[in-house]
Design brief:
alpha/beta; 7-stranded parallel β-sheet; Rossmann fold
């Protein structure tokens, strides 16, 4: 039976993916801050915060894996709450990197396995309302995309999934263009499980729009910085 580990599965995309994998015959272990509402003979759960020392120990107890999905994510839209912004980076990037550190060696030793990290189209933008979220996702995308070729040379696949707005509690923006359902996000992930691409950006139209907005956002950031320094642009 194929073994999957899902981090961040008490609700949202992680929970939806857990249920889908179980329905398709996988054995699933879930790790999250709260218990997941899943009752299945092939499901086990550990309640743990990814930012605590106990998280590493929980990872080390999971055993051999065919699939690991890092779906944990947090964000704050109060840019002056610096503790919350640091927390976003800790969950969205540092804990994901720790997951790779613990999980990937076993996959590499076996010459097989698949790691999927849930990033965001926000990784390409300057995001004044949520700088920690944008920074964490930018770092996650860069790390996993850079890691993918080396891992693949050893038989292990690494996939970065860059979602736009998904209808979960994390979608805090007052404007949510092209928002997709959790079920649709799960379908995208299941396609990734089957095809094992390096990067998926979804919805595609939103990805194209984000790419087009990136230079405008950078130009605005330079303009704002110039205004703050007496009008001198550098």
């Amino acid at each position: 039976m194929r073994q999957a580990l899902i981090i961040g599965n008490s609700d949202g995309i992680g929970l939806g993916l857990t249920r889908r994998l179980l329905a398709e015959g996988w054995a699933v272990t879930g790790l999250s801050r709260r218990p997941a509402p899943v009752d299945h003979e092939n499901y086990t759960h550990t309640t743990v915060d990814v930012t605590t020392p106990a998280y590493r120990a929980a990872l080390e107890q999971t055993g051999a894996l065919d699939l690991c999905v890092y779906a944990a994510g947090v964000g704050s839209v109060d840019p002056l709450d610096f503790a919350a912004q640091t927390g976003s980076i800790a969950v969205n990037l540092l804990a994901a990197a720790q997951t790779v550190e613990v999980v990937l060696p076993g996959m590499l030793a076996a010459g097989a396995g698949h790691f999927i990290g849930l990033s965001s189209l926000a990784d390409a933008l300057i995001t004044p309302a949520a700088p920690g979220y944008a920074a964490g996702k930018a770092g996650l995308s860069s790390y996993l995309i850079s890691l993918a070729p080396t891992a693949r040379a050893h038989g292990v696949h690494v996939t970065t999934v860059r979602f736009g707005f998904v209808d979960t509690k994390l979608a805090q923006s007052p404007v949510k263009p092209m928002m997709i359902t959790v079920d649709r996000a799960v379908e995208v992930l299941m396609r990734c499980v089957r095809k094992r691409p390096v990067v998926v950006s979804y919805p595609r139209r939103m990805a194209l729009l984000t790419g087009a907005l990136r230079p405008l956002a950078r130009a605005q950031a330079r303009l704002d910085r110039g205004k703050g320094s007496g009008g001198n642009l550098h």
